[in-house]
Amino acid sequence: MNERVKGKKILITGASSGIGQYLAIHAAQQGGVPILVARSTDRLAIISEKIKHSFGVTCYWYEADLSNDAEWKDVIDRICYDHGSIDALVNNAGMAVFDLVADAKWQDIDRMLSVNVKSLFRTTHQLLPHFLQQGRGHIVNIASQAGKMATPKSAIYSATKHAVLGFTNGLRMEVEKKGIYVTSVNLGPVRTNFFQQADPSGNYEKAMDRIMLDPNHVAYKVINSLFTRQREINLPAWMDSGSKFYSLAPELMEKVMQRQFNRK
Predict the structure, then answer these.
(1) What's the whole-model pTM score?
(2) 137-142, strands of its sheet edge to edge
(3) pLDDT tens digit string along 139-176?
(4) CA angle 23, 28, 29 (to 5 degrees)
(5) Coiled-coil region(s) at which residues (predicted)?
(6) Domains and CATH numbers, the chain
(7) Is 157 a catalytic residue?
(8) Which of the two residues, 252 and 142, has the higher pLDDT score?
(9) Which one, 12, 110, 155, 161, has the greatest CB density within 10 A?
(10) Gap between the Cα atoms of 260 and 117, Å rounded
């Protein structure tokens, strides 16, 4: 059990599957109190019951569509009313539809912006006064290596993650002397159902199969870093190295990696 996490209330969005469900499990395993948010009430109820049975921890859950700002604002208010204070926020919810910009449907673009960016801003903006009043807290934003290195068919998705990184970096500097930690988690492809919507053809998932990250391992790393001063978590390490090289020589990287970049 992790003494830093023990007894802490941890709000996790996008918690009904993938990384989110493992975040809940590891938070409970370390003695934390998970507060889960997602659209799938059936999945949330199952995860909550499993956590209670396995770890003897009460796991709270709330239904919300994070693309609906008014609904999500009301749910956050209810969470704050029910629990008084939150110790950590993990902005994990995210979605993508991989497509050429010229072929993209506006409703897909709008939903990516709403879920990946606007809801993350909303949650953080609404909870930040509580953290500041407490003089402590941890905000973890699940970003992406795509936020550092864009590729074809992910221009919109990459833009949303660029926004998350910019927001996270600026926020970190604003609150670093006020007892609040802010961490970005920049991931390569993770073995979840994310790609069922992002790329229904399955081509990208098949091409990336050998290098996909394990969501359980990702969640463990995130929960283990809570309430520590960690600027970024970058996985896998080799992809992070590629992102750094890209920032130094983008034209060369785009030329050398053209085939890999076009695998979607």
Answers:
(1) 0.92
(2) 60-63, 33-38, 9-13, 88-91, 137-142, 180-187, 232-235
(3) 999 999 999 999 999 999 999 999 999 999 999 999 99
(4) 95
(5) none
(6) 9-261 (3.40.50.720)
(7) yes
(8) 142
(9) 12
(10) 27
Residue with tokens 């990250």: 213
Sign of the dihedral through C-alpha 185, 103, 197, 16: positive
Active-site choice (22, 62, 157, 181): 157
